[in-house]
Amino acid sequence: xxIVVQKYGGTSVADKERIxxxxxxxxxxxxxxxxxxxxxxxxxxTTDELIEKAKEINENPSxxxxxxxxxxxxxxxxxxxxMAIEKLGYPVISLTGWQAGIxxxxxxxxxxxxxIDTERLQRELDKxxxxxxxxxxxxxxxxxxxTLGRGGSDTTAVALAAxxxxxxxxxxxxxxxxxxxxxxxxxNASKLKEISYDEMLELATLxxxxxxxxxxxxxxxxxIPIVVRSSFNDNEGTVVKEVSSVEKLLVSGVACDKDxxxxxxxxxxNVPGKAFQIFSLLAKxxxxxxxxxxxIGREKTKDISFTVSKxxxxxxxxxxxxxxxxxxxxxxTYADNVAKVSIVGAGMVNNPGVAATMFxxxxxxxxNIEMIxxxxxxxxxxxxxxDAEKAVRAIHDKFKLHLLNNGK
Length: 408
Description:
Layout: E1 3-8, H1 16-31, E2 35-40, H2 46-57, H3 63-87, E3 92-95, E4 102-104, E5 113-116, H4 119-126, E6 130-134, E7 137-139, E8 145-147, H5 152-163, E9 168-173, E10 194-196, H6 197-205, H7 213-222, E11 226-230, E12 238-241, E13 253-269, H8 274-284, E14 292-296, E15 301-309, H9 313-322, H10 324-327, E16 331-344, H11 354-364, E17 371-375, E18 378-384, H12 388-398
Parallel strand pairs: 1-2, 1-9, 2-6, 3-6, 9-11, 10-12
Antiparallel strand pairs: 4-5, 7-8, 11-12, 13-15, 13-16, 14-15, 16-18, 17-18
Helix pairs in contact: 1-3, 2-3, 5-7, 6-7, 11-12
């Protein structure tokens, strides 16, 4: 008898039929003699609807009050899921994030889990209850409700699996595994049978919507294998684990992120410490910066360009504009019509020709590259947003990823 954590995303609990389908899956594990924890997201488009409701009242509400509002979406889901399991004749209890002992920092809207007090969870599991926990939320030291950022229910599930020393963590979603590209963009994308934590972390961070990047970080830290599978069929999913196949794939996937903006700080004095000045200002505001490019301008000045997520753009521009005299820059410009397209693969380390192949694919498709960023297992390019999907298809074709088929 072990502990199994199952997580169901918004589409997997969107209506009555889907809730009962998820409930039956949880019960099937329970029937095997396992202790079962079910983590659920808000139903369907509930979170987006709540955001719209907030905008009707206040265009710029505080992040604390947004967390208070958005956490209600998961509270509805856990109650309905518990009612379904109850209806099917099994013992069950629903718990909000704070009732489940999930303690976070105070970074409202994007909080990080600091610890999980499992006492209540263990007590309920020992009573042989199926425990349904609200994903995406926790409580801070002020007893305020916090949320973990979009996709945070994945992180809740993996964190609970780590805290409870669970035997497995299953992430049920609307796709039946991790693909070489988004099948909605590339219809002939291949499903991967397995993928390493590092590759999945890069794909998740670079825009693949399958798993929340912090959930992969946690899984890697505590060595918890994750299985990504569909809640709509019984197909085998993709296993995310420490090392995938012995024969590492050259490229495992292509990801696309349209939720970014490029900011350029123009005419900065070319002296030591200026980059530190700029990025420390942003770090104080918890603004994550991604691709960075520094180029030498005229008259002993330099231009520094970087990318941030679109929802951090306004805050970034406000901070930099307010401190323009300290930075000593001539101007700040931005573009929010850009996209980041990336390739990821553990096999890229020893293959110097990968970047050239990617750039050739973009050249053949007539797509201009604005910025480039590389690491051992990824290459990212910044391009015009209108070219994003064409770029993903071109790169996917160039690397013949449709021929992988190792998960079908």
